[in-house]
Amino acid sequence: MKLAKNHLDLGLFSKNISSDLDFWQKIVGLDFEETLSLDQPVVPGPTTQHRHNANGSVIKINDFQDIMPYSRDTPSGLKGLSIARNISKELNYETNSGEFVRVLPKGRDGIQGIAVTIESENPSRLENFYVKVLQFESIGPLKCRCGDTVLILQKGPGATETKTFVGEGFRYLTIQVFDAVATCNAIKKLGGRIAMEPIWVGEIARVGFALDPDGNWLEISARASLTGISPTK
């Protein structure tokens, strides 16, 4: 897979945006970048996305301004986030929705940017998907890398199949590519599932969504600022 950005992004949805922004900014220490406004057909209702930088990855804290379709009782398989930083001692936190967040010394466990931990009842099946279908780099048993982002796959309760990626807590990963249509077509040819064919979100990006074998949502995004392509070109 040809990447337009060397880092994966992580998206989550908040039920208490004020508390969650305090957590990510004041406790975890992420720098706020900007907000984006989202709505149908990408999300089922008005949403304000608060974007924060984590070593080039964007942590997207989404404030969904309607009834949340899914609660933490129907979680994704995305259970934890590790963020590398120039510190000597590891710090551990828990989000309001129950995921773990580690801030750890840069280079520990091979992590230079971020790592996302995904639980599955069949982690080997997930590993095969990410390595064979998405063409991530295998870097060890149940461990792969996309750009400088590490995925750690482990045994545990997997994702709940959902009709939308909108739900409390960690819900999706974003892969930035040069051509969302071509990438989604390649995923389909290799046996992957596409939950949403690519569409333009204003003039910001052309995005589609794939599903891994457990039903975790993967945003395939070709952002205009990275590709130089817009709906008018």
What's this model, at a glance?
With 233 residues, the protein is an alpha+beta fold. Helix content is 15%, strand content 43%.
Along the chain, the helix and strand elements come as: EHEEEEEEEHEEEEHEEEH
Number of distinct beta strands: 15
CATH architecture: Roll
Cα-atom radius of gyration: 16 Å
Describe this structure in words.
The protein is α+β, with helices and mostly antiparallel strands. It is built from 4 helices and 15 strands. The strands form 2 sheets. Strands 2-3-4-1-12-15-14-13 form an 8-stranded mixed β-sheet. Strands 6-7-5-8-11-10-9 form a 7-stranded mixed β-sheet, covered by helices on one side. Strand 13 and strand 14 (205-211) form a beta hairpin. The longest helix has 11 residues, at 17-27. The radius of gyration is 16 Å and the shape is globular.
